[in-house]
Amino acid sequence: MPITYEHEPPYSVGVLIGSLSTESINRRLATALMRLAPDQFQFTEIEIGQLPLYNRDFDVDYPPVARDFKRALADVDALLFVTPEYNRSLPGALKNAIDWASRPFGDNALSRKPSAVIGASSGAIGTAVAQQQLRSILSFCDAPQMNAPEAYIQMKPGLITDEGDVTVESTREFLETYLARFLEFTTRVLTVLPR
Ligand code: FNR
User: Fold this and answer.
1) Which terminus of the chain is more solvent-facing, meaning fewer CB atoms within 10 Å of its CB: N or C?
2) Is the CB of 40 under 6 A from ligand 1?
3) Across the beta sheet with 152-154, what order do the strands follow?
């Protein structure tokens, strides 16, 4: 008998990019992932740069920009975090966005949201430390996260063009595998924990 899923694909995926830089290599990586994504995924960026610094005084009445942000998170089936590493951690802008997402207490937009992390750096350990710290935060925020494959991308010149073309075949194949596994993971989570 065929399995019927509570929630059939296509799945919407919100992409959070940890860098606000116009020249961001992580934005380039995100563009590549959006281009390589299987048809069962629909990716949209959820922007974080417009959010003010979180302060719990806002909890009684979130400003419109933060309400819109939380609504965008609520509307998607899954989340993909594409982040640089800043000083062996995640960028403050991304942590700030997660703080907004997680509050007010009892209204945590990350809870039960299937998530995956990936990042690019010019350095050889390609965001590994930032990603570990992000994983710890996502665990606390009750977001089920894909454990494997891990993806630490060392961005060499020309590896991904501004348009998101991946010029090295082995990297392109790796990213396709990563996305296929994320689709499997999302399907599994949404089957067990329907929205
Ligand atoms: C960096 N960079 C960096 N790289 C790394 O691998 N580990 C690190 O801890 C840091 N720390 C760090 C701090 C700050 C404040 C900056 C601006 C940069 C280098 C970083 O990987 C490089 O600038 C990337 O290009 C940043 O990603 P985006 O913004 O281009 O996506």
Assistant:
1) N
2) no
3) 41-45, 11-17, 78-82, 115-121, 152-154
Cis ω before 2 (30° cut-off from 0): no
Ligand 1 neighbour 123 (Cβ under 6 A) = yes
- Fill in the DSSP letter of residue 69: H
Which atom of ligand 1 lies closest to the CA of 18?
31
- CA–CA separation, 54 vs 63, rounded Å? 11
The protein residue with its alpha carbon nearest to ligand 1, atom 14, reads 86
pLDDT tens readout for residues 7-47: 678 999 999 999 999 999 999 999 999 999 999 999 999 99
How many CB atoms are closer than 10 A to CB 184? 11
pTM for this one?
0.96
Ligand 1 mean position, distance from CA 20 (Å): 12
156 in ligand 1 pocket by Cβ < 6 Å?
Answer: no
Residue 88 Cβ < 6 Å to ligand 1: yes
Determine the residue type at 150. Answer: E
Q: What are the backbone angles phi and psi of residue 152, rounded to the nearest 5°?
A: -115, 105
